[in-house]
Design brief:
mainly beta; 2 domains; 7-stranded antiparallel beta sheet; Jelly Rolls; single chain
Length: 238
């Protein structure tokens, strides 16, 4: 088993006034050659967008882009004609494929929005762009992991063009769970949304991350009430 730990305070920082973003991996003006990606997980940005602000129209291609609001809501508009709002408790997928443009705005006049922006390299390039979002409020469970993303159209959660699975777990203090990887050769990156946990005996706190590979499973114990995002991804870029 191999692992790498990224403590919250070691992440890159970009403060643009309207946007405060912490980067687990190299992004924009933050470049760390030792933190370029974890397998096909290319970007993990922890964004805070001020009230009435947002990302203007910009392009993407050949990337699977997942957005998970943690507080507040964000308006999405794209060149495919989609106009939607994603809120805390939603998961959004944008398969950029051959190319799209989109914008994201916090239309609230008095409250910031906090969300995770995650980029995954696809296994197939130049697919037809696609948008989807789901509410996870009806599928969330207590003290166990539940699936919010997979490679399969008919599975629970949104689906992407990659052999990746995302799970979220909300655990009360003292509860433990084991996560078994779905595919041989994959690794899992755990990002602590809230609270304190131990993962394979490593102590982690809010916004810390740990990547683990060359293992069939990982063990998670909540030291305090905690919420965790697990991202199982292929470790090979090919």
């Amino acid at each position: 088993m191999n692992s790498v730990i990224h403590k919250a305070e070691t992440r890159g920082l970009a403060n643009h006034g309207w946007l405060n973003s912490r980067h687990t991996f190299s992004f924009a003006n933050y470049h760390n050659p030792e933190r370029m990606h974890f397998g096909v997980l290319r970007v993990l940005n922890d964004d805070q967008v001020q009230a009435g602000q947002g990302f203007g129209t910009h392009p993407h291609d050949n990337m699977e882009i997942i957005s998970i609001p943690l507080e507040g809501d964000l308006e999405h508009k794209d060149s495919m004609g989609n106009l939607a709002v994603i809120r805390e408790g939603d998961v959004q997928i944008l398969s950029a494929g051959t190319g799209i443009t989109h914008s994201e705005y916090n239309k609230n006049s008095s409250k910031e929005v906090k969300f995770l922006q995650i980029w995954i390299f696809p296994h197939t390039k130049n697919v037809t762009p696609r948008y989807d979002q789901i509410s996870i409020r009806d599928i969330e469970k207590e003290n166990e992991f539940y699936q919010v993303l997979s490679p399969n159209k008919d599975d629970q959660g949104v689906w992407i063009n990659q052999d990746a699975w995302f799970h979220i777990g909300k655990f009360e203090k003292g509860h433990a769970a084991e996560y078994t990887l779905k595919k041989e050769g994959n690794g899992v990156y755990a990002f602590i949304l809230d609270g304190d946990v131990e993962i394979n005996n490593e102590k982690l706190s809010k916004r810390d991350g740990i990547g683990i590979w060359n293992t069939a499973s990982i063990n998670v114990t909540a030291s305090e009430n905690a919420r965790i995002l697990l991202m199982e991804v292929p470790m090979s870029l090919s």
